Amino acid sequence: NFLSYARGEVQIFTEFMCTAGDCLKRGEREGQWVGVVKSIIEEYDFIGVTERMDESLVALALILGLDLGDVLYFPSKRRGGFDDGMHNDKCHYIVPPYVSPGMEQFFSSDEWTRNMMVGDFELYGAAQRSLDATIERLGKDVFAEHLAKYRVLMARVAEVCASRAIFPCTAGGERISKTNCYLWDLGCGYPCLDKVSDGLI
Questions:
Q1: Does the predicted TM-score (pTM) go above 0.85?
Q2: Closest Cα partner for 134 from 64, 38, 51, 30?
Q3: How far, in Å, CA of 102 to CA of 64, rounded?
Q4: Which distant-in-sequence residues (6+ apart) come within 8 Å of 50 by Cβ?
């Protein structure tokens, strides 16, 4: 079952976490992960947050001096859809997530939050704080203005590009060879994104 799988897999990947010569055994207290998380954050020039994708991409665009049109995207691998069809040249259905009451209880338990996933939560929190600090340095008013413009563009993408993006797998799960993706199911619908960026549609 899922609990056995989670306990086994997390034990494999978090038995030891070594960064810059420091190894921490799984289950050690949160405070002992601070050095490890700090070294990870310092290793990267930029870390985005999936749950704050718009903010992350706008911040990245401002840092790099990019046009907002350069960071438009059309999502792939959405729940209830299909993958890129690369495994065995077949389309595989992406099952919508389901969390049972037992799993909810497990995910709120000390075993999960303070033992198995403590390092992940510390890193996630650090990435959130780093993004907030980046927004502060860019200027909240400037950032808010660009974020509003970006969301207008993304709303336009959702409106006009859904029917124009050609993915490797159809809505019915049929594999097709002619797409408008950069690679596999990456960057699908880019001709439409370019036109939205240029204000042509």
A1: no
A2: 64
A3: 45
A4: none
